[in-house]
Amino acid sequence: MDFLWSKPDLTQDKIFVVSDGSEKDGIGGMATLIAYPVLQKVFVFACQVSPGPGKVTSYRADWLAAAGPFLLRRQLSRLPVVHRADNQGAIINQQHLHVRPCVVSGDIWDEHKHFVSLCIHHFGDYSVEWMQAQPS
Which end of the chain has fewer CB atoms surrounding its CB within 10 Å, N or C? Predict the structure, then answer.
C-alpha cells in the first residue's frame, strides 16, 4: 500500500475520510474509507441502511460516514478530519445547516450534525470537500 501514502494530497497532518452511498428500491448501502497517514493505516467499513420504507435516501447512506472518525477516535490522533464525498447536493445542505434546516431526509441531518460536532470536539476540525466520482 506504499503507493497510497506517496500521493501528495495525503499529507501527514489530516485524517482523510472518503465515503459513498446509494439507494435503490428502499434499500441503501454505504461504504467509508478512513486513511490515517500517521501510522499508514486504512480503516474501511460498509453496511446496508434500511430504517424502513420511505426513509432511505442517498443522503442517509452518504452521511452515515460522519460517524466513522468518531467511532475510531481511540485509534486515531487528534488531527483535522477531511471528508471527501461525491454527493454535491448533500455537501451544500451540510454546509448550510447552521442557517437553515434541511427538508430532504430531515432526521439524518440531526444525526449528522451530532457526529460532526463530536468530531470537531475530539479532532479540532471537520471539513467536507466535493470530489467527482463518476465521469460527467
Answer: C
